[in-house]
Q: What sequence folds into this?
């Protein structure tokens, strides 16, 4: 519902649903009745990467945003993202600030160091262990170079999908598919 509170509303929303009941379909049907945003609902077999690829093929805008179903957007999210892409023609993708990242307890921090899961010298890079070290958007005022975007809220230029797609090898939930695509 935070989509409807945006200062700059998206042109279209494509919901790719792999649920086994009709709850989402019924809610979307109600939303479509009074929506100023074009909403397209499509059912899909399970698989996050399959769903992302299907949504991308159905999209018609210059930018394609991927949002998890539990994401609550700040009212300026789409406006700020649009501005980033307008300011930098070389920008291929962007991610937004994630507010609910928890703080870790010291034992977890020590274990992360032991297994080389601690932060690299630069955020947004791959760690020595091969795991992702996502950018902490709370410390970035505008755009910053990064190797990886967070799949829960990422936006890419549509033209990227002319040459690339999400690897459907990442079946089911698709853990780390966002890192692989980035």
A:
């Amino acid at each position: 519902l935070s989509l409807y509170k945006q200062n700059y509303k998206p042109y279209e929303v494509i919901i790719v649903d792999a649920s086994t009941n009709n709850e989402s379909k019924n809610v979307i049907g109600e939303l479509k009745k009074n929506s100023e945003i074009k909403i397209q609902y499509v059912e899909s077999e399970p698989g996050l990467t399959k769903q992302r690829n299907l949504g991308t093929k159905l999209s018609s805008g210059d930018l394609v945003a991927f949002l998890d179903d539990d994401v609550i957007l700040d009212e300026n999210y789409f406006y700020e993202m649009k501005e980033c892409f307008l300011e930098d023609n070389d920008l291929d993708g962007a991610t937004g600030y994630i507010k609910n990242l928890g703080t870790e307890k010291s034992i977890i921090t020590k274990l992360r160091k032991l297994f080389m899961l601690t932060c690299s010298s630069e955020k947004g890079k791959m760690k020595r262990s091969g795991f992702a070290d996502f950018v902490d958007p709370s410390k970035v005022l505008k755009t910053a170079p990064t190797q990886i975007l967070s799949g829960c809220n990422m936006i890419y230029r549509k033209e990227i999908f002319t040459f690339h797609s999400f690897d459907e090898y990442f079946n089911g939930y698709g853990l780390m598919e966002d890192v692989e695509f980035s």
Remarks:
- DSSP finds five helices and seven strands in the chain.
- Strands lie at 12-17, 38-43, 63-67, 93-95, 125-126, 132-133, 153-157.
- Helices lie at 23-33, 48-58, 77-87, 106-114, 177-181.
